[in-house]
Specification:
Strand content: under 5%
Radius of gyration: 42 Å
Length: 694
């Protein structure tokens, strides 16, 4: 058991004893009990001091951990790509931590570093006897096993393109360090290969030789050579390069690249970083042993922290009160700091959102009061639900601690004065929250903040999409009220259409757009309340699907008023009663978009697993589905169209009594009812227009 755990167990035992005394006897007012409580409090304070000492050690460990994390964060994510590119452009590698060898990327063979290996005899000439070559190799420490005389094929493959570091640029042939004859294995015997001639088996002679040992230790019993061949159709170029990189890393080799920066990058990624991670794991294990309280969460039990405080004694003493508040705030701040460190990336994203939402809404003169109010309320909604900085939590905690500090300062000031008894009595009588209530409230502040962060973390994509939707829709409505309006004005004026007419069109357009805008926020609100399970797996959530089809509907409405509305007017402009026919054709055209919206809604509704979600979607959409029916009825009423029979009007009004919810259990019945209503709408519009033509 760790020191901290042992101390915690002893502390809990003391608290249990204290509670037993208070429960069995009269309380601390009892003289014997009071004395025993004092003894236990003294003992507890001693353990608390030891705990603070361990906490100080923990702070040092945390500091080291932060430094290691910072070092790891500095390593670029594109480092591997840079290393693979360097491997692509380089065949031969000296090895930093194995200086006596040379690595050939093409074959995976290791060769002796001829800068350090005694490849010739002691007099600087050729070895005259082959029988000593194995002894020379075996008595030399390469740092890697398996070195031997190469075969004639291995030797020739190493030197034939003259890129090997030991080839001299001035050599016209394939000599190594000016030597032409080198030992190789041919038909089971050691022979001399004359590098003055091309070909692996040409000019194999019995001659004194230089020695260039190699080893297949890294690739033994593997198909490395086959995998890295440029013509291998199974692997991509990147995969072939990765085989070489794996060979380095798996054998803990530090290759020296032609570019020093790549060598350093390799060391950082494959040597320094693993070492840092080992240290990180070691420190985390230490922290785990010392830190008994888990990471904060929205359901953390603050009463576990409160258990070590003697609440009755704290509330009875002003000095104990401010000291306890100070200590409580410090403990919570430590936990918040640790939480911030662990959730740094999530909180960073949250803070970026907060920055977007922090700007105060400014009313736009092109918008009506209701429209400005809608956009303002929408921004406040997003600020409340998506804006959060842990700094605001810290500020609230520090504000509480500051009040405790002020209380301590006031007592110190009173102690310096001549009326301390009276002033202390007055100070003691001032009202202040009980310590238990204060602790509960500060815990609530933290839990509310953490609840948002946890939701954000679990629903990151939805939250980010919601913020983009808010930005795009807000800006889109401003464009609608300025650019789109001006475009309609100029387009109509070019065709001689009076302002009174196009303004009425824009008013109808605005009414539809405003109705659509009202539907966006409720979707986000529903999304924040929790998921809407589906029968079939979908790539995007149900709320996001609803936003998408609502946006499509909005675009269809915009396209109609920008490209088609004027044409309908021109079609009926010179007919008797053309204004009435024009209105009915317009509403009929707009109803097609409503029908398309409802068809898309149907797919979403019947993929929802829960009946309440289906009902919610239908209730959410109802006013949009009725909007064209309402518009026609209002138009008829305002224009007192006596030619249209009351029977037709009654039937048309009855379309609003859809009661789609009774079909929500059966997709086929719902679809049939929707088709019947759509057919009835078109039929009744036709009858109205027919009556008007009489």
């Amino acid at each position: 058991m760790s020191n901290l755990a042992s101390l915690t167990a002893q502390r809990d035992g003391l608290l249990k004893k204290i509670r037993a005394i208070e429960a069995a006897c009269e309380g601390i007012e009892n003289e014997n009990n009071a004395k025993r409580v004092q003894e236990l409090n003294l003992e507890q304070s001693q353990y608390s001091a030891q705990r603070q000492e361990i906490a100080a050690k923990l702070a040092v460990v945390d500091g080291k951990l932060a430094a290691i994390n910072a070092g790891i964060m500095e390593l670029g994510g594109t480092g591997v790509e840079k290393i693979l590119e360097a491997i692509k452009n380089q065949r031969w590698y000296f090895i930093k931590n194995k200086p006596k060898i040379l690595f050939d990327k093409n074959t995976g063979l290791l060769w002796a570093n001829l800068n350090t290996f005694n490849y010739h005899d002691k007099d600087g000439g050729y070895y005259k006897s082959y029988e000593y070559l194995d002894n020379i190799i075996n008595n030399y420490s390469f740092g890697v096993d398996g070195f031997r005389v190469p075969t004639c094929y291995e030797l020739w493959q190493a030197v034939e393109d003259t890129t090997i570091p030991f080839h001299r640029d001035s050599d016209n042939q394939w000599r190594l360090l000016g030597n032409g004859y080198w030992a190789c294995e041919y038909n089971g015997c050691i022979r001399a290969k004359n590098l003055g001639y091309s070909g692996a088996t040409s000019h194999i002679e019995d001659y004194s030789v230089a020695l260039f040992p190699c080893s297949d230790h890294l690739i033994k019993n593997s198909d490395y050579q086959e995998k890295v061949k440029p013509g291998n159709p199974v692997y991509t170029e990147k995969e072939r390069l990765k085989f070489t990189l794996d060979l380095f890393t798996q054998n803990e080799l530090v290759p020296i690249f032609n570019d020093e920066a790549i060598t350093e990058l390799y060391k950082k990624l494959y040597f320094e970083k693993p070492q840092l991670l080992e240290q990180l794991q070691e420190l985390e294990n230490q922290i785990k042993q010392l830190q008994t309280v888990t990471l904060l969460s929205s359901d953390f039990d603050y009463t576990a922290l409160l258990a070590k405080y003697d609440i009755k004694a704290i509330d009875a003493s002003l000095i104990r009160y401010y000291q306890a508040v100070q200590q409580w705030c410090r403990e919570l701040m430590e936990k918040v700091d640790y939480y911030e460190e662990q959730k740094a990336s999530v909180i960073k994203d949250f803070n970026l959102i907060s920055l977007k939402l922090s700007k105060k809404y400014e009313a736009n003169s092109n918008l009506t009061e209701a429209e400005n109010s809608l956009l303002c309320d929408r921004q406040h909604f997003f600020q409340k639900n998506f804006s959060l900085g842990m700094n605001s939590v810290k500020t609230k905690l520090l504000a509480v601690k500051k009040q405790a500090d002020a209380l301590e300062y006031r007592i110190d000031e009173i102690d310096e004065g001549e009326n301390s008894l009276r002033e202390l009595a007055e100070l003691e009588q001032e009202k202040r929250a009980s310590f238990a209530f204060l602790a509960e409230n500060t815990a609530k502040i933290i839990k509310n903040a953490l609840r948002k962060i946890e939701y954000f973390e679990a629903n990151h994509t939805f939250v980010m999409n919601a913020i983009n939707i808010w930005e795009n829709w807000t800006e889109g409505y401003r464009v609608f009220k300025t650019t789109y309006k001006e475009d309609m004005k100029h387009d109509c004026e070019d065709d001689g259409i009076e302002e009174e007419i196009w303004s009425a069109w824009y008013q109808d357009w605005q009414q539809l757009r405003y109705a659509i805008e009202l539907k966006m926020q409720p979707i986000i609100e529903r999304g924040l309340r929790g998921s809407m399970p589906t029968n079939k797996e979908v790539k995007t959530s149900v709320p996001e699907q609803l936003i998408h089809i609502l946006d499509d509907y909005k675009k269809q409405i915009d396209k109609f008023y920008k490209e088609e509305r004027k044409g309908i007017y021109q079609k009926f402009a010179f007919q008797v009663g053309g204004d009435l026919q024009e209105k009915f054709e317009t509403e009929s055209s707009l109803y097609k978009f409503v029908a398309m919206l409802q068809s898309e809604l149907q797919d979403i509704i019947f993929n929802c697993k829960n009946a309440e979600d289906r009902v919610w979607i239908l209730n959410w959409a109802n006013s949009l589905l009725d909007i064209q029916i309402d518009e026609v009825l209002k138009f008829v009423a305002n224009n007192d169209l006596q030619k249209i029979s009351h029977t037709i009007l009654d039937e048309f009004a009855a379309l609003k009594q859809k009661n789609y919810d009774i079909y929500l259990a059966d997709a086929k019945a719902y679809s049939e009812e929707k088709a019947r209503r759509e057919k009835a709408y078109n039929s009744l519009i036709f009858k109205m227009r027919k009556d008007l033509a009489k």
